[in-house]
Design brief:
By secondary structure, this protein is mainly alpha-helical. It has five helices and two strands; from the N terminus they run H-E-H-E-H-H-H. The longest helix is centred in the last third of the chain and has 16 residues, at about 95-110. GO terms for molecular function: nucleic acid binding.
C-alpha cells in the first residue's frame, strides 16, 4: 500500500480500532475497488465491522481466510520476522519499550522492501 496511515500505535486491536483503520484506508482508496483479505480475529467478525463492510459492499470486497490456516496468511511471515528480530527471548520492561522495539523493526522492514517482497512472493 502506498498510503502512509497515521495514528497512535495500539497494543490491542479491537473492533473500534479496526474500524478506524478501515476508514483511513477507505478515505485513501474510495471510490476505487478494494479487495480486502482478512484473517479470523474476533474483531473481524464484530457486528459493527460486518455492518461497515455491508454499507461499503459496492466497492469494497471482503475475503475471509479459512480459520487456523496461517500458511494462507502472508502477514504471518511478517509477524514471524518481527518476533525473531524484535521480541523473541527479550525482556521488554513496559509498553513503551515494546512500542520502541516494534517501531524499530517495522522501520527496518520499510528500508528493505526486497526482504518483504521475498516473504510475500509465495502469495503473489
Amino acid at each position: 500500500m502506498k498510503a502512509v496511515l497515521r495514528g497512535a500505535f495500539t497494543l490491542f486491536q479491537r473492533a473500534d480500532t479496526y474500524l478506524n483503520f478501515l476508514e483511513q484506508v477507505a478515505r485513501h482508496y474510495y471510490p476505487r475497488p478494494v479487495f480486502w483479505v482478512q484473517g479470523n480475529a474476533s474483531y473481524h467478525k464484530d457486528a459493527d465491522v460486518r455492518d461497515w463492510f455491508a454499507a461499503n459492499r459496492s466497492w469494497w470486497k471482503v475475503f475471509n481466510l479459512p480459520p487456523y490456516c496461517p500458511e494462507f496468511n502472508a502477514t504471518e511471515r511478517l509477524w514471524h520476522h518481527t518476533r525473531v528480530t524484535g521480541t523473541h527471548n527479550r525482556y521488554l520492561a513496559d509498553d513503551g519499550e515494546l512500542n520502541a522495539t516494534l517501531t524499530r523493526v517495522f522501520r527496518s522492514m520499510q528500508r528493505r522492501p526486497d526482504q518483504i517482497r521475498g516473504y510475500l512472493q509465495p502469495f503473489a
